[in-house]
User: What shape does this take?
Amino acid sequence: MGLQIDHISERQAANAFDSQSLIFDELYAKNSIIHYKRDRVRHHLLKYLQPGSSVLELNAGTGDDAIFLAQRGFHVHATDISAGMQEKLMGKVAFHQLAGSVSNELCSFTALSELVNKGPFDCIFSNFAGLNCTGNLDRVLGGFDRLLKPGGIIVLVILPGFCLWESIFLLKGKFKTATRRFFSSNGRKANIDGASFTCWYYSPGYLKRELKDKFKLLETEGLCCIVPPSYVEGFPEKYPRIYSFLCGAEERLKNSWPWKNVGDYYIISFKKK
Assistant: This one.
């Protein structure tokens, strides 16, 4: 039953992203905090990639990260369950003439055993909470070992079960936003462009427990733990000095407790033993 519910939720998420695929980049292009988040994730990822590494990207979306990596000499196999997102991705690959560096495959991360290109890869990468669309993350993580070379790297960006910024919204009376991660062990409904799907939340401790037998933890850092989340639109433009101060504070404290656990996301990386 769990896998059936998982498939339904993931299919709903794919439908939601399909509906946005044509306007996805335009929607977020002017959001300064989204650019901040991407820069942070990429900086973390590049620390652990060796020149010429092969990367299996899960939930590749419209391909911004795949293009970024390919332009820096990495080889990316970009996967997604959304056909619309894959179409946009390959359009960008053609535009940038990167067909030799980026391949793609329409595949769910819950069905990695069905991948045609099984690698093995130097790195598995998933950005911006794509893996939160499953209630069976343990099964997904369990398939990583066979897809990675010895010493291979995992870099994931995950939504935790508590976000400090969201709790602050209680003071503004925005109870739905402030409590949406509370009591979420059975998942909570999320919404994109009127299409709903289920989202689950996972702590860094959960991933460490699931991966500890075959992987060594490298690093955990909070993302938008002090800097406001990207849905607080216009904050950097309205309060540039405060925003600059918050960015500096997050840079200093991102790897420290409790900040690494209370962001809108966290970035976590492992190395195969």
Notes: The beta strands are 54-58, 75-80, 102-106, 121-126, 148-158, 188-192, 195-199, 215-223, 265-272.
